[in-house]
Design brief:
With 233 residues, the chain is an all-alpha fold. It has 2 domains: 135 residues; 91 residues.
Length: 233
Amino acid sequence: MTEKQKYSVLLIYIILLAAVGILFFVIPFEKTAAVWTAFVFAEISVVLGCALTNYAFSKKEGLKSKVYGLPILKLSYMYTAAQLIITLLIIIADGVRDVPAWLPAAIGVILTAAVLIGVTMADSARDMIEETDAKIERKIQNVKAFKLDAYALVGACEDEDVKRSLEKFAEKVKYSDPVSDPALEEIEKKLSDTVEEIRQLIDSGNYEDTALKLNAADRLLDERNRQCKAMKH
């Protein structure tokens, strides 16, 4: 959420807070203990809803974090709306028959507790998802690096036969399983070293040895993919 969006949300809640207060005091009706209690919880719901809405987007920047914050945003809106509706119903009901003060108090406490528990659970879920995303991102870095290196080699190669082989290798890297694993560290290190040796050979114009090293890199990639597939079964 941008600063402008945050200020817009804050302004909406301030307007809502003021509107509820003004209407409560301007509209002539008997203000019993139950009505006052309902009104207090209504104002609390607006303030807390505003705080929770801002908190929903207060963590990491980026689209994923904003999407993961949507459940908290939804809870905050639903909480404020529900409490305002309950307050209105309490006021209407109290005009027909005396409502005990403990009823709106109990409803307000239960509703507030429920939304805070819900937000806590949603926030914990968001943390877990973001942590999982970060782990997956770290795991795919090696294959991303191989892919970039492979396509860079294609662009640097001037021998047409070797370039075609490099293009096939780059395509194989592109469609390899992107998720790495600690068990693949050794073979991925060998593959990375071999790709670096290929780059040095291309820079020196030694395309005969480049073809040999490329065959070795291709075999390493096949073995890496085989091991990766075996770990998932």
